[in-house]
Specification:
Chain lengths: 94, 152
């Protein structure tokens, strides 16, 4: 896993602060795998009611604090789109 | 006037023209929103929305380049670009570095996320309508600084 415990804590605290305590954060994608290099931090987040500017604010703050590119997907709770299925199947809930 | 200051003014003149186009598109888009049914939009209405999206993006892009030129002229750091933004904040040309970055992220999202969902499209345009006045205000502050500092 190519994120440090401090970085993971930063993700959790930032998403909670911007998106609310109820935000359910799943980390997926290439940074989960030690054998790969580079890549964005792929985060899939479910909240009761997604708001565009909250998503943008959260992404900007995460990129600032992690100093890494972040790809943030924000969906309503229980979303069942193809990307949500991939994230839930391959990712880990933070 | 030095060659570099002349270049800054060339950028500012271009930015002034871009501002006129953006203000026009802003008004056109305000009249269109809220859109009840995207499927019934006429081609010229789609064109108005597209023009606003492009002009919004290009205005911020060009203003950023002009800010960088000012930072260079003032012998301030210009890399990373955050250094320029922090300097602009110090000059009161910018209210908030974070807000600038949010607007930049908004235009990246608008330009790269291909959306069909009417609610998402509506949210994008509402957010741009809400942010455009801030860009226009920052432009006025930048122009004010340059007029005082580099008189023509």
């Amino acid at each position: 896993m190519r994120l440090t415990p401090v970085q993971i804590e930063t993700i959790k605290s930032t998403t909670a602060a911007v998106l609310g305590e109820g935000a359910r954060v799943t980390w997926f994608g290439s940074r989960l795998h030690d054998g790969q290099k580079g890549g964005d931090v792929d985060l899939y987040v479910e909240v009761p009611a997604p708001v565009l500017m909250q998503k943008i604010r959260c992404k900007v703050q995460l990129q600032e604090r992690l100093d890494l590119p972040v790809d943030l997907i924000l969906k309503p709770l229980g979303d069942d789109s193809p990307i949500s299925r991939i994230a839930k199947r391959e990712g880990i809930v933070l | 006037m030095s060659e570099h200051i002349a270049l800054i003014w060339k950028k500012l003149d271009h930015l002034a023209r871009m501002r006129e186009y953006l203000v026009y598109s802003l008004e056109q888009t305000r009249q269109l929103l809220p859109i009840q049914d995207w499927a019934t939009l006429l081609p010229d209405q789609h064109e108005s929305l597209a023009a606003f999206r492009v002009r919004f993006s290009e205005f911020q892009e060009h203003m950023g380049k002009t800010m960088k030129a000012v930072a260079l002229e003032e012998e301030k750091p210009s890399e990373p670009f955050t250094a320029v933004l922090l300097y602009m904040e110090k000059l009161a040309c910018l209210d908030s570095v974070e807000r600038w970055k949010e607007i930049r992220e908004l235009r990246n999202a608008v330009n790269h996320e291909y959306e069909h969902d009417p609610q998402t499209l509506h949210d994008f345009f509402e957010a741009m309508l809400g942010s455009a006045p801030e860009l226009l205000q920052w432009h006025e502050h930048l122009l004010g600084f340059c007029t005082r500092t580099y008189p023509r």
